[in-house]
């Protein structure tokens, strides 16, 4: 067992001296600690965010309005300014490598910045021919391929609004999302490959298009070689004509894209972010917290249906080369992504925490990562053992950055910074400009105790609105109902006296046993340390102040049985490492743990099912990675 807080890495003087955040602090004249700069960034937000605009030389006009006007949830940023995301993302020397694409079959494509600019110009001209203009929506049903990045930048250059779903989403899930925003154009693939298999999506695309009455065209990308239906333009048709690349500069809060909540328990919330907020936030986060810039190769394993895709392509803003990958993380073996990183000279490797844990359990020993400086982990809390594995098997010199944030802000608000050490299970800091606190039930800020993660001051990348929410009621109810004027994110967090943070999982799926509250991540850390356990889910069925049953569901590793001995060892470990109150009443084997398409465990829907909600009402199967396992949690199964 690895002790939480064990020191694993410290920045050397050379690392600190070379860090981009050090040069920023020197420019500002700040000679204090990171914590001093963080306090300034949240106490003087106008000065801080102005400094970000100036330091990076954001292209656009600042205007003469106030930097920030009003308070949450109605804060307005940089009134009178005008800019365009694509114009900022596509600046730089045309000869530098901007994008590299790989897929699981080994195919590879490389694009210079000049080549990307030309492709964006061509697709922009094609969208104009289809009638797309300022404020129109372009929807995409595409994997993580260069065409997705190019089409997004072309859409943004027009001041039109982008929205994407991965082609592993089912038709109902896609129409639940896209129908809300009424797109003018749909860009879609005929299929995709994953895990060595081809998946034809032609009929699904036709079904989706048939339920979007505002469409003027469906543009087909032939990933599997199918011809476009009669009358439908192909990707080659869209990019057939060149026109000079131009950028429509728009107000700071003009919609850039629409992202969506998971949609597993209701209609997905269409979350709208603005050009300016994303440009400033991603420049700050990628450059200072992940230390990315020119010469870096930036990779994050993601699909176009997860906000990490939007974050990944933000690497262009920082001047990094963006590595796109389409395929399974574990094909032909668990080491697939590490091999990719070695072959492409990745300097920053990002993935979900479950992949790091899976690599640890599979005994993967990554090799050839000579250029790797940083590893990012997100999606769920990474246990201390995962931290320790990185430093024992990947290398002692890398900076492991566990991030926590979300689709809601399209960034992390607690994460790493090159100036601070890495300790097992601990996120080093609250990010610049993110006024993160831990609240007790009365709304008092607490240190050293687990509480609700809240944000007490506005951030420019907070949603500018929810689509089709003109009154703002749905937006306010989502984040501001519990603490008026304060953003409640829905996670448990403990903020340590030195500013480090520990995330304990969703606060709406807390284990409350005998008055002792505990986040589910602590439970999973104990259970999933067992080699026999591939995955797990814990549910407390208590409600309305009454203590219910504590149920543990486990998926076993190949060749393992849920024996009396294993059950006894699990119970003993939980009693010893957590408390007698947290020993499960029952332990059940299931064929899989239900997860969203972005890999999050579905604790709340399973709890509803166990309490009698019909399976199809408790969760939207089309928003899940493995909907077939849900029925195993029904009481009558």
UniProtKB/TrEMBL annotation:
InterPro entries: Acac_CoA_synth (IPR005914), AMP-bd_C_sf (IPR045851), AMP-binding_CS (IPR020845), AMP-dep_synth/lig_dom (IPR000873), ANL_N_sf (IPR042099). The keyword Nucleotide-binding applies. PROSITE patterns: AMP_BINDING. It is an enzyme of class 6 (ligase). One of its GO terms (molecular function) is ATP binding. Keywords: ATP-binding, Ligase, Nucleotide-binding. Transmembrane segments: none annotated. The keyword Ribonucleoprotein does not apply. It comes from the Bacteria. Its EC number is 6.2.1.16. PANTHER family: ACETOACETYL-COA SYNTHETASE (PTHR42921:SF1). This is Acetoacetate--CoA ligase. It comes from Microbispora triticiradicis.
């Amino acid at each position: 067992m690895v002790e939480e807080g064990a020191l694993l890495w410290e920045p050397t003087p050379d690392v600190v001296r070379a860090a981009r955040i050090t040069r920023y602090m020197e420019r500002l004249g700040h000679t204090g600690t990171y914590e001093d700069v963080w306090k300034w960034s949240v106490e003087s937000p106008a000065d801080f965010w102005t400094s970000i605009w100036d330091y990076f030389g954001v292209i656009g006009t600042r205007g003469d309005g106030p930097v920030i006007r009003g308070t949450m949830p109605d804060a307005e940023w940089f009134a009178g300014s005008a800019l365009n995301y694509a114009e900022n993302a596509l600046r730089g020397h045309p000869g530098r490598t901007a994008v590299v694409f790989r897929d699981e079959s080994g195919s590879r494509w490389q694009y210079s910045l000049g080549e990307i600019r030309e492709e964006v110009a061509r697709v922009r001209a094609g969208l104009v021919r289809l009638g797309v203009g300022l404020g129109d929506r372009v929807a995409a049903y595409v994997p993580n391929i260069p065409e997705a990045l190019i089409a997004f930048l072309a859409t943004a250059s027009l001041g039109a609004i982008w929205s994407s779903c991965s082609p592993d989403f089912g038709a109902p899930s896609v129409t639940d999302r896209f129908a809300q925003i009424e797109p003018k154009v749909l860009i879609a693939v005929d299929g995709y490959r994953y895990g060595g298999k081809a998946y034809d999506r032609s009929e699904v695309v036709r079904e989706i298009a048939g339920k979007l009455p505002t469409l003027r065209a469906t543009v087909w990308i032939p990933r599997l070689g199918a011809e476009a239906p009669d009358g439908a333009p192909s990707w080659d048709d869209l990019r057939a004509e060149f026109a000079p690349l131009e950028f429509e500069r728009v107000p700071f809060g003009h919609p850039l894209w629409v992202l969506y909540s998971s949609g597993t328990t209701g209609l997905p919330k269409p979350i709208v972010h603005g050009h300016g907020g994303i440009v400033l936030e991603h420049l700050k986060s990628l450059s200072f917290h992940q230390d990315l810039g020119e010469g870096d190769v930036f990779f994050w394993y993601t699909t176009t249906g997860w906000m990490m895709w939007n974050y990944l392509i933000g690497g262009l803003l920082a001047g990094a080369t963006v590595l796109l990958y389409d395929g399974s993380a574990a094909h032909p073996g668990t080491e697939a992504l590490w091999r990719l990183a070695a072959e492409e000279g990745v300097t920053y490797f990002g993935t979900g925490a479950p992949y790091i844990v899976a690599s640890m359990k599979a005994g993967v020993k990554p090799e050839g990562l000579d250029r790797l400086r940083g590893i990012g982990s997100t999606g769920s809390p990474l246990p201390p053992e995962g931290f320790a594995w990185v430093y024992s098997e990947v290398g002692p010199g890398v900076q492991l950055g566990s991030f926590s944030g979300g689709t809601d802000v399209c960034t992390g608000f607690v994460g790493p910074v090159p100036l601070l050490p890495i300790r097992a299970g601990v996120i080093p800091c609250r990010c610049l400009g993110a006024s993160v606190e831990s609240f007790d039930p009365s709304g008092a800020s607490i240190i050293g105790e687990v509480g609700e993660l809240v944000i007490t001051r506005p951030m420019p990348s907070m949603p500018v609105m929810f689509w089709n929410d003109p009154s703002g009621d749905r937006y306010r109810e989502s984040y501001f109902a519990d603490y008026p004027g304060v953003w409640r994110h829905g996670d448990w967090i403990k903020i340590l006296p030195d500013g480090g943070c520990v995330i304990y999982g969703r606060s709406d799926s807390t284990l409350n046993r005998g008055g002792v509250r505990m986040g589910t991540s602590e439970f999973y850390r104990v259970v999933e340390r067992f080699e026999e356990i591939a995955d797990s889910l814990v549910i407390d069925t208590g409600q309305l102040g009454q203590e219910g049953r504590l149920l543990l569901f486990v998926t076993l590793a190949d060749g393992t049985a849920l024996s009396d001995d294993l059950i006894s060892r699990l119970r003993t470990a939980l009693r010893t490492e957590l408390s007698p109150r947290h020993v499960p009443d029952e332990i059940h084997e299931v064929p899989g743990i239900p997860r969203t398409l972005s890999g999050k465990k579905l604790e709340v829907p399973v709890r509803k099912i166990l309490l009698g909600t019909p399976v199809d009402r408790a969760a939207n199967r089309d928003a899940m990675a493995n909907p077939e396992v849900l029925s195993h949690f029904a009481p009558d199964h």
